[in-house]
Design a protein that fits this description.
Elements lengths: L1 E3 L2 H13 L4 E6 L5 H13 L2 E6 L19 H10 L4 E3 L3 H4 L18 H4 L3 H16 L3 E5 L3 H13 L5 E5 L19 H6 L3 H13 L5 H13 L4 E10 L11 E11 L2 E11 L2
Bound molecules: adenosine monophosphate.
Amino acid sequence: MITIEGITQMRGVSRKAREEGKLIALVPTMGFFHEGHLSLIRKARKVGDLVVVSSFVNPSQFGPGEDYGAYPREPERDRTLAEENGTDVLFSPSIEEMYPQGYSTWVEVEGLTEVLCGRSRPGHFRGVTTVVTKLFHIVQPHYAIFGQKDYQQAQVIKRMVDDLNFDLRILVEPTVREPDGLAMSSRNLYLTPAERKDTVILYPSLLRAQELVQEGERDAGRISDMIRKMIADVERAEIDYVSIVDGENLRPISQLKGKVLIALAVKIGKARLIDNILLSVDE
Ligand code: AMP
């Protein structure tokens, strides 16, 4: 595995790989690897001949007062884990490299970014789509792999790839969870032991919703009320949203039908946690 910090060098490696007919698979990350990231890297290893993992804590996707400064970083450990899981190139550019003096261009997807996390994190997706566009131009991947945990992000990026005619495929991999169901996230580190215990309600609330659907419930209001009630039992949990939306366009629905996303964002202590399940609902 090689580590690259410069954009020019990264471009050179990608250009050579393409000339040799190799398929490039990119996994964009903000580092501080856990099993979720590693599962994406292993997927990249399966589909690509050259596996590039980018690690860049992107300032432009954090709002004022969010956790940019506190975001955990552990580059040495990341290097080892990346290599052990099949990475060929770890691309970790500096902020100056990505956003030099005078930087002033942004990529914005409308609609899909105005719901769910877009409501409580204005500007977040603009930062994501901008940095991902830059990474796509620099790395020139054939595949880019994202996690279902950030389902909205994956939908926004797919929209952008279609709209801007990027010549690559987006793959979305399942959410990797702790043994008790908590979706793995770098932000879980912010939880105190007591808060960590409180998180155990989140995934079961989604599973309970799934059960209700299996039992025949189709009313979105009743299902989201049930989820809210379960979470409200946990004193420290502050609900940002519990939403039941169309799995493609992310618009709220009142009756469940077809591809349905049940998504939540809950603040527990300093951590804002998100999770979701995707259901295929027949009439
Ligand atoms: P991050 O470093 O948090 O920006 O995440 C980088 C990529 O890993 C994104 O595509 C995330 O959706 C994905 N990811 C984060 N957590 C998980 C998880 N628990 N399971 C699967 N993918 C994940």
